[in-house]
Amino acid sequence: MAVKVLYFAWVRERVGKTEETVEPPEGVTTVGALMDWLAGRDEAYAHAFESRKTIRAAIDRTHVKPDTAIAGAREIAFFPPMTGG
């Protein structure tokens, strides 16, 4: 299953790209598992996802929790917490 992954703010800076299309292995079925898999890709991803509890995620522009299934997702975004004013 190929899925488009978007990176924002310091996650983007650490990964070094704004987006990419990935094909996670079969065992990667949740947002949290996807973060773990991405973190294992190389040092830049490991650095980007070192504070997984801080990173927020959205599937198809809807905020989700780490235990949310990624099956059928077209787009998954990762970003730091946001504040407004």
How many distinct folded domains? 1
Question: What is the CATH class designation?
Answer: Alpha Beta
Helical percent range? 25-40%
The largest sheet is: 5 strands, mixed
Structural class: alpha+beta
Q: Using the 3D structure, state the CATH architecture.
A: Roll
* N to C succession of SSEs: EHEHHEEE
What global shape is seen? Answer: globular
**Terminus-to-terminus distance:** 39 Å
Structural notes for this entry:
- The chain contains 3 helices and 5 strands, in the order βαβααβββ.
- It has helices at 9-15, 31-39, 43-48; strands at residues 3-7, 19-22, 56-59, 62-64, 75-79.
- The protein has a 5-stranded mixed β-sheet.
- The longest helix is centred in the middle third of the chain and has 9 residues, at 31-39.
- The radius of gyration is 12 Å and the shape is globular.
- The termini are far apart.
